[in-house]
Design goal:
Layout lengths: L4 E10 L3 E4 H5 L6 H8 L3 E4 L6 H16 L8 E5 L10 H9 L5 E5 L5 H14 L6 E8 L9 H4 L4 E11 L3 E9 L7 E2 L11 H5 L6 E2 L1 H22 L9 E4 L4 H11 L10 H4 L4 H13 L8 E8 L3 E8 L1
Parallel strand pairs: 4-5, 4-6, 11-12
Antiparallel strand pairs: 1-7, 2-3, 6-7, 8-13, 9-10, 12-13
Helix pairs in contact: 3-4, 8-9
Bound molecules: acetyl coenzyme *A.
Length: 327
C-alpha cells in the first residue's frame, strides 16, 4: 500500500485593491515603463492600504483557503505564517492571524525564509501531519513589502508588491506531496537585507537618516544565484520523486524576474508554456508569490487531479527549495 501523503486541500489568496503601475512609478523615480517591463517583466503591483498589515492580508487569504477546504477555523491545529514583513517584530504574525480568523485551537508561529518562506512552511507542516501530531494545518505566505521598500531607490522600488496566499494541508488518499528539497547559504546574508531595526542595529536617529530600515539588494549578484539554485532545486526535488521535467504539468515558481524564469526554463529544459507566470500583475511578493501563483493555477483550472506540479523558490538568506506535488 502507498505511504499516506499530505496534500493541499484548499487554497486562498488576497491581493490589495490599489494598483501601482509602471507609469505611476515614472512619476516617483527616474525610471520608465519600458525599462521595468523589459528588465523584469513587471507591469503593475498591488499596494496595501495604510490600515492593512501583513496579518490582515494573510487572514483574508486564510479564510478563503479554509472555505475551499470545507474546514472551520476551529479545526486548524497548526498555523504557520511565512513573512519578512511581520506586523511587529513580535508577537508573531501567525498569532495576529489566529485572533482574526478565530483559529483558537491552533499552534501558531512565523518562519523567516524570505521568498522561499511558503515552501519552507509547507514542508514543516507536512512533517507535523505525516507523523500524526496534527490533522489540519494552515500555511500562509503574506507580505506588505511596500512597508520596507525605499520609494526613492529606483533599483528596488519597481520590483516589489503586496499580497498573501494560503493553503490548507491534511493527509490525502490520492495525490499529495511526493518530495521536497530545501537548502540555505548563510555566507550570502548580505545580498538582500534590512540593515536596521533588529538587535544588530536598533532604530536610532542615524538609522532613520540613512534609510537603513528599507530593503537593500545586490540585484545582479542575486540574479546569478537565483537561476542556478532554482534550477538545481527543481531538479533535485524531481529526482527525489523519481520523476523528470517531462512529467511536469506546471512549474509554479517564485516570481522575482521573468528573465530569471526564462533562464531557469532553459537550464532544466522546460518550455515557457509550462512555467506559471503572474509577475506582470503583482511583481515580487516574496513569500506570497509562490502561494498566490499556486492559487491562480487552481482558480483558473490550469491543473487537474493527477497532474504533477513543482513549486520552486529562491530568496534572501540565501534560501531556496522545491516541492513536487501530485495534484
Ligand atoms: N529604471 C531605470 N534604470 C534602472 C532602474 C530602473 N528602475 N534600476 C536600475 N537601473 C539602471 C542601473 O542604474 C544601471 O545603470 P548603469 O548601467 O548606468 O549603472 C542599469 O539600469 C543596469 O542595472 P543592473 O542592476 O545591472 O540591471 P539588471 O539587468 O541586473 O536588473 C534587477 C536589475 C532587475 C534588480 C535584476 O538584477 C534582478 O531581478 N535581480 C534578482 C532579484 C532577485 O532575485 N531577488 C531575490 C529574491 S527577492 C527576496 O528574497 C525578497
Amino acid at each position: 500500500m502507498r505511504e499516506e501523503r499530505v496534500g493541499i486541500v484548499g487554497v486562498g489568496a488576497y491581493l490589495p485593491e490599489r494598483i501601482l503601475t509602471n507609469y505611476d512609478l515614472e512619476k516617483m523615480v527616474d525610471t520608465t515603463d519600458d525599462w521595468i517591463i523589459t528588465r523584469t517583466g513587471i507591469r503593475e503591483r498591488r499596494i496595501a492600504s495604510d490600515r492593512e498589515a501583513a496579518s490582515d492580508l494573510g487572514a483574508k487569504a486564510a479564510e478563503e483557503a479554509l472555505k475551499n477546504a470545507g474546514l472551520t477555523p476551529a479545526e486548524i491545529e497548526l498555523l504557520i505564517c511565512a513573512t519578512i514583513t511581520p506586523d511587529m517584530l513580535f508577537p508573531s504574525t501567525a498569532c495576529f492571524i489566529q485572533r482574526k480568523i478565530k483559529a483558537k485551537d491552533a499552534v501558531c508561529f512565523d518562519i523567516s525564509a524570505a521568498c522561499t518562506g511558503y515552501i519552507y512552511a509547507l514542508n514543516i507542516a507536512e512533517q507535523f501531519l505525516k507523523n500524526n501530531t496534527y490533522k489540519n494545518a494552515l500555511v500562509i505566505g503574506t507580505e506588505k513589502l511596500s512597508a520596507i521598500t525605499d520609494w526613492k531607490d529606483r533599483s528596488t522600488c519597481v520590483l516589489f508588491g503586496d499580497g498573501a496566499g494560503a493553503s490548507v494541508l491534511r493527509k490525502v488518499k490520492n495525490g499529495g506531496i511526493i518530495s521536497s528539497y530545501l537548502a540555505s547559504d548563510g555566507e550570502q546574508v548580505d545580498l538582500l537585507k534590512i540593515p536596521a531595526g533588529g538587535s544588530r542595529m536598533p532604530a536610532s536617529f542615524y538609522t532613520l537618516k540613512e534609510r537603513l530600515h528599507f530593503l537593500k539588494m545586490e540585484g545582479t549578484e542575486l540574479f546569478k544565484h537565483a537561476v542556478k539554485l532554482m534550477a538545481e532545486a527543481a531538479e533535485k526535488a524531481l529526482n527525489r520523486a523519481g520523476l523528470s521535467c517531462k512529467d511536469v504539468t506546471y512549474l509554479i515558481p517564485h516570481q522575482a524576474n521573468i528573465r530569471i524564469l526564462q533562464a531557469v526554463a532553459k537550464k532544466i529544459g522546460l518550455p515557457m508554456e509550462k512555467i506559471y507566470l503572474n509577475i506582470e500583475k503583482y511583481g515580487n511578493m516574496s513569500s506570497a508569490s509562490t502561494a498566490v501563483a499556486l492559487y491562480e493555477t487552481v482558480k483558473f483550472k490550469k491543473i487537474k487531479k493527477g497532474d504533477i506540479i513543482v513549486l520552486v523558490a529562491f530568496g534572501s538568506g540565501l534560501t531556496w527549495g522545491a516541492t513536487v506535488i501530485e495534484w
